[in-house]
């Protein structure tokens, strides 16, 4: 095969998983300040299948499109001016988001400072599962909420990709953590640091959570979770709405109760990923990978993700 092409998953039209096509495309070339990374694994996130279906970040994309924002791999080439990385470095990143990054491919290019050295204690599959989810949790808890020791944090959808990492980060910061998830996930979430778990299919979290300082809402308007969360948030507390931002209904209910709200849309942050890599290597944070799929099985991976019943993350294997 030509060194100027690479394997990749392309989307020629928005639609179901069947529009995902594995083929060969032109290999990218790094510009000054960029690095070329040989991708060993690519993480799969809800924004991927939503975008594939014409939702999510579809409005910011141009077809044909290579999906994927989570990557882990090895630097193969550096552009002029790059001083922080060198060929052979193992790195991980969430480059370019929400612009297209082309993560479902054998190579990606992006600014060097959007990458960080991969945690040394884990493999590429685990590292590829981290960036988008862990940066979402980090930017919600650390940068937006400013979590302090002794606060109480409620994490909705705690067994998912962002949720299980948010539980661990909040616990690391010294918060008491209440986590909502179906009962079979409760023992695992307590291992990760949840102090209290609530089965949202059998219990009303309003009756079980008690008063909290911060809500990390990963469900949005589903079952009116966002608006219902106002009832358990102390006056002056904060509800961070991750999917879709702050709805008008939430803004109205929160304003009447003296509760603050904030949206979060994750941004690339190589410096934060460096800090997080240290937490992973210290054993303070670990990522759960439910399954690793071959690149050719990408449609099956999307179908699995769309069930919304994944424990942790799904990953594509692109190892040489």
Automatic annotation (TrEMBL):
<dbReference type="InterPro" id="IPR036291">
    <property type="entry name" value="NAD(P)-bd_dom_sf"/>
</dbReference>
<keyword id="KW-0560">Oxidoreductase</keyword>
<dbReference type="InterPro" id="IPR002364">
    <property type="entry name" value="Quin_OxRdtase/zeta-crystal_CS"/>
</dbReference>
<dbReference type="InterPro" id="IPR050700">
    <property type="entry name" value="YIM1/Zinc_Alcohol_DH_Fams"/>
</dbReference>
<feature type="domain" description="Enoyl reductase (ER)">
    <location>
        <begin position="15"/>
        <end position="316"/>
    </location>
</feature>
<protein>
    <submittedName>
        <fullName>NADP-dependent oxidoreductase</fullName>
        <ecNumber>1.-.-.-</ecNumber>
    </submittedName>
</protein>
<dbReference type="InterPro" id="IPR020843">
    <property type="entry name" value="ER"/>
</dbReference>
<dbReference type="Pfam" id="PF08240">
    <property type="entry name" value="ADH_N"/>
</dbReference>
<dbReference type="GO" id="GO:0016491">
    <property type="term" value="F:oxidoreductase activity"/>
</dbReference>
<dbReference type="InterPro" id="IPR011032">
    <property type="entry name" value="GroES-like_sf"/>
</dbReference>
<dbReference type="Pfam" id="PF13602">
    <property type="entry name" value="ADH_zinc_N_2"/>
</dbReference>
<dbReference type="InterPro" id="IPR013154">
    <property type="entry name" value="ADH-like_N"/>
</dbReference>
